[in-house]
Design goal:
By secondary structure, the chain is of the alpha+beta class. The protein is 27% helix and 10% strand. It has one domain.
Length: 81
């Protein structure tokens, strides 16, 4: 049996969203409070970094340039032939 969305928020199992959740598409407003429709404790999802359910935040991608020793690269290239 599937419960209604209202029943999820009334029984107190869902906690209100935290400040980092502002702007997310998964936030549901119910009786003056904002709740995450997907996860019960939104603060726990932000504890280790970005919430994986967040629709408004994207992880940073860092480009790292690797230096290659030209002598070793030449040796590797000559072995492949």
């Amino acid at each position: 049996m599937q419960t209604s969305n209202a029943a999820k928020f009334i029984d107190g199992s869902f906690l209100p969203v935290v400040e980092q959740c502002n702007g997310c598409d998964r936030i549901v407003e119910f009786e003056g409070g904002n709740f995450c429709d997907t996860y019960k404790t939104p603060g726990a999802k932000w504890r280790l970094g970005i919430c994986n359910f967040a629709t408004h935040a994207k992880p940073e991608v860092k480009i790292v340039k690797i230096r290659v020793n030209p002598l070793k690269a030449a040796k590797r290239a000559s072995r492949r032939k």
